[in-house]
Amino acid sequence: MAEIKNANAKQEERPLTQGVKEYIQFLEDANAGKPVEEEKKEKKKEVELNTVEYHSIKPFRGNGKLGVIVLDNFAHAGKMFFKITIAGKEFIPIGYDTFGNPVISEENFAYYRAMKYLAERKGETLVPKIEFKKKVFCVKTEAYDSIQGIQNATTSLKKFKEVLINRKYAARTGITLNEFIAFEKYILASDGRVYEANNIILKDIDSKEAAARSIYSVDEMEYYESNGNEVHIPDEKDVCAVCGKSFDISDVAFASFTETKEASKVHKNCLCDFVRDMEHQKACEIIDAVYDGRPSSEVVYDDEQDVNWYLFKTNQGTIGIRFKTKVIEIKWFDNFKPFNMKIFDNERVTKYDRGIHAWSKDDAIHYLVMAKKA
Fold this sequence. Notes:
By secondary structure, the protein is an alpha+beta fold.
């Protein structure tokens, strides 16, 4: 009879294979919280923040809702290069300007103003502490302050933007810059900024080399002037706020870009289309609130005043609407039914023969209803 072995009996131990040993070590390392060899990542080197400054936060250009800390020194841009503390709380920038000055979010800027107000109310002073890595400006002068150096950079937007940034850096360090005319549209000024150039007249240039250039010294100008408007040239990372396409050097050469009040870059044609369609929609909403059947409309551009008129053919005649800076203008054309403009005598707004200004959309609807019923 065969011998039956006890299942609970201690069985003979077998030596572990190398693969099993490695797997057990894998599990032990994982449970102990040790880095697993296969998942080890290269640790980032800590950046030495070698400069400390104390500054208040000021409104950033554009809508003024963002904040910016203007430093005395140039700084490397990036979160790893900065540590900003205010009353023991750390503020993390959302971006950086040309000189590496940190830009503060709308929420943090509002928070800072509240903290500052409360501190001052108690007779205390609240000043942010900024620790950062200082950046040294070291670029050859010819690269950003000579005709040939700037001309070489006109092959791409990235290179041209680098020249403009270097000019700003140089001007801030106290270097006296030469002035140039770029693309016959911009003045590269001695303060490192870029301004609109108008009524440019070049001197007679005989050489083919000079005629082929897009960068000129101001000494090569017979006449030029500027309205003093600063131009913020986009860089290769900027995209049009309307169409979403990137900008390139041709947009700069043909001045086909502009900037919104919120400091967003946009193609001029895209902005015109956007404004026209938004205004057209608003004009339609005003008319549709008064007249049934959605009267047909058309857009007529006024060259002299650089505005669009939105014309509607109602069952009572044609009505025109246009949007000015602060008011909405309504005009009843000659084919509109007769009515007496005296119905608006109590309205303290600008009025003229068959026309009136409205302060708001609701006022515009109210005036149209009054004319409709008159």
